[in-house]
Design goal:
166 residues, rod-shaped
């Protein structure tokens, strides 16, 4: 058991209201945890003071009852007011030094610079690949022209309606 669970069950343990298995777990924890053991002793002292006052509504109306109660609870209330309970981790404020912020910003700028440089290199490679593809297509088109007939090169002939197409 952890300290929070033991603290929740401490009053029931001291009053003998826990199941036997739970009571053994609390006893084992009290044997190993000094702070919980101190709380259990403080609760036991308070139980002794309350039982010495007697039972009934008449003692609650007496000023001595409240004076003893205030005397017993004042140190505990003062300690609670001086040290607030710890915040859960999702509500804690994290403090980062200015050196840490600068180091993080420098690392971020380096990473962005490297990514930009790699992006520019990629764009240059894409342009080079496109140029090479265009040259290859042009070379394929030139290689696909038919060879000249009888060693004479082709001449450009314009269209004439009476001759047709050549």
């Amino acid at each position: 058991m952890d300290c929070g669970t033991v603290n929740d069950r401490l009053a029931a343990f001291l009053d003998g209201e826990l199941a036997p298995a739970e009571a053994r777990w609390v006893e084992q924890h009290l044997g190993t945890c000094e702070s919980c053991c101190a709380k259990a002793e403080a609760f036991a002292e308070q139980n002794d003071v309350l039982s010495s006052l007697g039972h009934g509504a008449s003692c609650v109306r007496e000023p001595e009852f409240w004076a003893q109660m205030d005397a017993n609870l004042a140190p505990h209330l003062a300690s609670l007011q001086q040290s607030p309970p710890p915040l859960p981790f999702w509500r804690k404020e994290f403090r980062i030094s200015s050196v840490g912020v600068l180091a993080y910003a420098a690392a971020l700028l380096l990473a962005l610079g490297f990514a930009y440089e790699r992006f520019q290199a990629l764009e240059n490679e894409k342009e080079r690949i496109q140029t090479l593809e265009n040259e290859l297509q042009r070379a394929e088109r030139l290689a696909a022209e038919p060879p000249p007939l009888h060693g004479q090169p082709y001449r450009a002939v314009s269209y004439a309606p009476d001759r047709g197409h050549l």
